[in-house]
Each structure stands twice: as C-alpha cells, then as structure tokens.
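Help! Submission page says 'invalid entity' but I think these are all valid:
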Amino acid sequence: MNLELLAVFAGASIRLSAPMMLAATGELVSERAGVLNMSVEGMMLTGAFLGATFSWLTGNPSIGLLCGMLGVIPLALLQAFLSVTLRANQIVTGIGINILALGGTTLAYREIFGERSSAAIPGLAHWSPPVLGKLPLIGEPVFGQVWLLYAGLAVLLATSVIMRRTALGVALHATGVAPRAVDQSGLPVARIRYGAVLFSGVMSAAAGCFISIGDIHTFTEGMTNGTGYLAIAAIIFGNWKIGRTALACLLFGAATAMQFQLPMFGLHVPTALLIMLPYLLALVAVAGLIGRQTAPPALTQPFKR
Amino acid sequence: MNRHMKLQTPLASAPGTQSWRARWPHLRVACVIAAAVAFAMLAALALIALMHVSIAEALAAFADGAWGSPYAIGASINRSLAFALVGTGFVIANRAKLTNVGGEGQLAIGGIVATAMSLYGGCAHLPFGLSFIVPMLCAAAAGAVWGGVPGVLKAKAGTNEVISTLLLSFIAVWLLYWCVQSEALLRQPMTNGATLPESLEIPDPTKLPAILAASGMNLNIGLPVTIVLAVASAILLARTRFGLALRAAGLNAIAAKRAGLPITSSLVGALALAGAFSGLAGALMLQGDQYSLKAGFSSGYGFDGLVVGLLARGSITGVFAAALLFGFLRSGGINMEMVAQVPSALVLIVQGIVTIALAGGALWLDKGEARR
C-alpha cells in the first residue's frame, strides 16, 4: 500500500461523496423545516438529464448546470404544493415524483439522443485550491476536483452558518419542531417550507449535474442509481446535524470508492457488501444503537392553520 | 372502510337534502380515481403522439400485450398477483397508520429464500406438494422477519417505520445482488466465462403447479392462493380483535393502550404480516414465473405494490382493482416497447401521475369519506 494509491482512493472518495453532499445539504434544510423530501432521487435524475442535455446542446457545461438547477424548480414546486398546500403524504408524493422522473427522463433521453447515445458531453472544469493543489504526490489526485464540489462546500458552510446564526435559520429549525408556535409568532410556515423544498430541489439538481456533467460526462437511464436515497441515509446517520451529515457523506463515498480500490490493494470484498454498507450504517443509527436520534419532531407532519 | 366514523353523530341534514356525493362516498372516490387514471392515460396518449408514433399502432400493441391472447391475459394476471399481495400487506399495516415502504426488499428476501430452499433445501423430494409449499412458507416467514424488524424497532426505539423499511429494502436488494454474484451463495457454478450471474433453475417439483391448463393462460396456483389470502385479510381486518386493535392503534395509540388493547404486538404483527405477504409475492414470482434468481429480480414490483396499496385506500377490493390495472399496464407497456417502439418508460409516467394525483387528492377523498 503506497501513498499514491491512497491519494487516488481519497480523491475518489471525495468525488463520489460530492453528489451526496450537495443533495444532503438541500435535503437537510428541507427536513429541518419538517418536509421529508423523498423525491431527491427523482430531482437529481431530472437535474442530471437537463444538465447533460443543455451542456450538449450549448457546448457549455456551466449553462447546462444552470439549466438543470432552474429546470428542476417546477418539480420542486410540485412537491411543495403537494406536501405543504395539499398536505399529502410526503413519502407517497416523493415516490410518485421519483417514478415520474425516472419515466420522464428515460423517455426524453431516448427521444432526444436516440442513436447518438454515446455522444461526448462537455463536462465541468476541474479546479484545485492554490496551495493544497500544488502539494507533491497527493495535491492533484486529492484536490484536483470539479469546481462544483468546492462551490458545494461553500454552500454547505454558508448553510451551516445560516442555520445556526440567523433568524432565518432559527425559524427553519422551529418550523420542523413546532410549526404551530412558528405560526403563532407570525411567521409563514407554508412559505418557509416552500422555500426549503425549493432549495432542496435546486441542490438535488446540482448533485445530479455533478454526476452527469461533472463526473461521468454522459447521461444514462436511471444513472443516479440510489444516490438520492443515500443522501437521505447520510442525514439519518448524521443525526440531522450538518457537520455530521457531511462526514457521513464522505464515509459513504469512501465505501463506494472501495469497490474500485480494494482490488488494487489485493483485497476481495463483495461489491454488494460495500454498496450495502451505508444503508446498514444508517439503519444502525436510526435503530438508536449509536446515541439518541433526534429527528425533527414535525418531520412528515403536514401543518394546518 | 372507516367504520369508526359511524360512531360520530352524522351532520344534521335531512336524507333528501344530501348531495349524491355525500350519500355515496365510495362512488365519489371511484370517480376521482377513475379521473386520475384517465388523465394519466390521456397524458400518455399525448406523449405517444409527440413521439410521432401512430396512436392506433401503439394502442393495438398495448392491447395485444395486455389482453390480446389467453397467454397475454395470463401474464397480466400473474403480474397482478405480486402487486395484489404486496398491496394487501400494505393495507394491513396501513390500518394501524403504518407505512410499509419496504415491499421491494421483502419481495427480494422472499425470492432469495424460495430459491435457496428449492435448490439446496432438499425440498424437491418432499411428498404431497410440500416440495413447492415449503419454499413458499419459508419465503413468507423470511419476509415476515424482514418486515417485523422495523416493527420491533418502532416499538422499542421509536424508529420511524418509513425510514427503517426503506433502508432494509435497499439492504435486501443488494443482498440479492450479492447472492447471484457469489458462487459461495446462490450463483450457478461457473462452467465458462459466459456463465450468467444468476442461480440455477429450480427443480420441477418446486415450481408452482399449473391450473386451468386447457385455457392456455399459463396460470398457476398462485392465483387461488392470493385470492384466499386477500379474503382472509379482509375478514381479519373487519371482524377480528386483531383488526380492531390495528384500527385503534392507528386512531389513538395511547387511548387504545389504556383500553387494554395489545398495541405493541399489533404493530409488530401488522408489519410482519405485510412483510410475509411481500415475501410470498417473491416466492410466487420465482416459483411461478422466473424459475431462477437474477439480479434485478424484484424490478420495482415492490414499489408498484406499494402504489397499489395506496390507490386501494384501505379496501381489499380496491387492491385487486389497482393490482389488475397495474398488471395489465405493465404487460401492455412491455409489448408496446417491443412492437411499436414506444419506450415502456411511458408506463412509469402513467404510474407516477396516478400516484401523485391521488396523493394530492387525498385531502378531498378523505373529506368525502369522513362526511359519512
């Protein structure tokens, strides 16, 4: 085992955890406000598709990313309308949107790309931080990442500060704990929840774009392949705290990266076990085996004035 | 459905002045559901037109695949069985306001266990039809365990069953993948490089016996088994102490506990039963249709079953209607893809729209029922 391989492994772990981190940042805000947005997976897929399509059409991946993030807004509005205004079962609407997104993107992909399915799609540029990227041996493999990753980290930090230090953050927390109290203090519960779901949708789309135009540079049917659910699992494992959730994403990313890296180290662990690991860890966490779970009390509870 | 509502004093209104909607809430619900399905179908037709495929051709292919021949009808019905079983389980758990999202995984576990028992459990040599009954029972038992764990977690640690059933579902699906990838587990012996990652075919005695063979519909005893179980479930929910405890637990768990009803065991029992039904569905799919375990064995049937359970809105009759709808939709969709080059993803869109429309409409549907 040498340093170079380890650096490659660390870089791969970070790269694979990035979409989870992006999606989990948005999802955490939504869950903190009391809406379990189960449609992250579908929104990621939609974002991935729109990002790839517009990147391919315009030749500019940044425009693709923008289109992906904007294009998912109707879907996010739908989810918010169903779960906040219509007070529908959030899990059901989420699964419904996931099914719809899988069907819709598959159909649209076949229609638009058809025979050209192997067309190369321009991807987002790489960037490495000034000093860290210049480190010998480990600089490039670890820190030379798609810029969206660093943008996502910035959003994560900003979210964490906003959640902890601002009136908006306090209101968000309170909406997921005691919506009635929030309502009685004169704040609009519905509007806060709409905002949270929209944020979750846009971040999910960015996460999807990271996969399609950041990492793989193409679109394939159902390409998110459960990453959205992993983001939800990371939040559970992170006990609805933003720092721990980010660490959980990194851990899950490392577990995914191990599939490709362990054979290089001469170790043979069943792939399925590694893919299963994040879900197992989340289950252990949610079963209360590692500390008390503190899900927002009003999570999945619709609010009626 | 919602018999408890009768306990409340009905809104004071003379019989003649009530609107038809208040008098026949079931009719109202049926109308809303039919409207949602019709809307989704129209959307699908519009999409087909957009794709420059002749609608007549696509519809002909759909009809052909769904009910065009006895064999097609049989295939659609066989598909419906899995949906009906998962949906029935969902309805049972939902009576206690529990949402079992784990049908997909419970189905996979059922498939794994049924395969293991059929191939390596020595079931092939059992007499009196036990050769196919034992794998089915084992699959149901394994599903019950997989479904019961979230129940225990809910009772002991207060874990939200939606989250735990969903996580367990993913674990089971990857467990299945592991089983068919590893020779030490269920993968067939590798004789050459082209050996597919799937199990051996199960021995003939463990396959489900055919019924009505002369009809050419390729039906098996899964059909009567499903019907009997569904009727039994309807009776269980409507006429037994267990059913009452479930309903009470769903309405007000604390009050029910004070009244001396066994709430904890009812919750665990309901989820375990839901798991058992899904596990059995896995066994039916394997022993009645696929005969060997492959990666992607469950292929979304568990999630479809969940949607079926939702559409049924607590009624077992509704489960059958929705299961048949989905069974025919899937069969027709597959044929449409093969014959008319319309991607079967269209079926997913229809299912998604129906699910979203009914989830969103729940507010009005519930209001209609509560008015009784």
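Support: the input was valid. A stray whitespace character was the problem, and the output above is from the cleaned input. The two ends of chain A are 61 Å apart (CA to CA).
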